[in-house]
Structure formats: C-alpha cells, structure tokens
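Below is our example:
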Amino acid sequence: DFCLSRGLGDVYKRQFSGGASSYDQAVETLTFAKAKGWKRLAKIATSDATGQDIGEQFDDALKLPQFSGMRIIVSEHYNGTDVSVAAQLANIRAANPDAILGMTVGTATGTLLRSLRDAGLDRVPLLSNLGNLLNSALSQYSSFMPSKVYFTAPRFYAHDVALPGPVRDAQNAFYKAFNAQGINPDVGNGFPWDPARIVIAGLRKLGPHADAKSLLAYMESVHDFAGINGISDYRGGDQRGQGLTALVIVQWNAAKKHVVTVSEPGGKPLR
C-alpha cells in the first residue's frame, strides 16, 4: 500500500493498493475450481486477521450466481503458531471434499502442507493464495509439497504464455531487470513494480515541483497503463486499478521445483 497526502499533518489522505483485491482472488480461485468440477469445498484458515479476511472473501464470493451449486462443507481454523493441524484435517478428511481452500500465509502454510501429507490428504487439490508465492518459502516446502497445489498468482507469472502486446512487453522489461541481477522475481518483487512506475510517470509528466495534490489528481486519472499484471485503470475510484484480469492460477511442478501457469487471466483453465 502507498498513500498521498496534501501536506504534513493534513488529515486528507488517499491510499492506493497494488494488485487485485482478496475478493477478486477468491472469485478467480472459485472460477478455476468450478471449471475443474470441484464443488464441495473444505476451508482451513488461520485465526488471525489475514486468515479471517481471506476466508470471509470466499464466503461472500460463493453467494454470486455463477457459483451456484458450490459450497463449503466444512470450515476449520488454527493458530499460526500451532505445530500441527491433525485434528482439523481429520474433520476435513471425514467430509471428503473435492478440494481444500488453504487460506494461510508464512510458517502456518508450511505446517498445513506437512500435515496434509501426514493425514493422507496430499492428493486432494489444495488451493492457496498468492501470499505464499515467495521463492524462499516454496524452496523450503518442496520436499513435502502435496501433488496438487494451486496458487492464485499475479499475472506476471504467466509471462511464459502471455500473448504479444504491451503487457508482455512490460513483463519482458520486469524480468530482464531482475534476471540481470541474478534474481528470479516473485510476488515480493512484483507488488511495488507497477505502482512505482506509475508514480515515476506522474512525476515525469508534472515536473520537479509537483506537489502531492497534483500527483494524486494524475494517479486518479491513470488508465490504459500497461503493467506486468495487465492494464491499469484508476478512474473507477477503487484505488487499485486492477481486477480479475490481473490474476492467474499457477500449479506447483515438482520436477521444476517451481510453479507453472495453468489458467488464463481471471481463472479459466488453459486448454
């Protein structure tokens, strides 16, 4: 997140968030699950604010007409510091879901992945969120990653299947910059990239004496901005500029020890 204000001490502020919302992430995940025929879903989330927020977004998204017939048949929670979720997974196993929504981040995700293996649930599709797409974390989890793990991902992860055009051009520049430094970029690198480019474009247009008010006006008028996650348009007032088309689904590939793109922007599976 980043914000602009009129001046020091001024209560007027406008906050912007990079990337699609957690609600859009839920819609995209459910779109993919529906296409796969996974209608009976189990949900397991951490009891902290992050887990609760992500979980609630799925509850709201499931009310949409396009997800009629899909439902959460069991919902479990655990503390992020717990070292096992065996009891919760026993309940999930008894419910026999088509897929599991694992709404966790950080260390809690490692606990969930290990526990899924130990509970014999590692062949049930697991759908998780983009907060886990950190290369260091995926490397740590690779030895016990279940066989069918999917993540919501920013669109730049689909660079390998992107069609020619301004978005792919932006992705090429992004990957070139990080690869030149020996870095394989992940979500931590991707989140600030487009917001920084938009701010820089505004400062270049307005000149060295631009104030926060004029920069704010510029940002709220930005549209047709080709970034690594799609075309940004801030005129709608949501302060994000991006929605479903900024997201794809990726799947863990054990052979590559990395993720590969398996959906179009918005969640429809690739053919």
Summary: The two ends are 35 Å apart (CA to CA). Residues 225 and 232 are 5 Å apart (CA to CA). The longest strand covers residues 71-78. Confidence is low (pLDDT under 50) at residues 4-12.
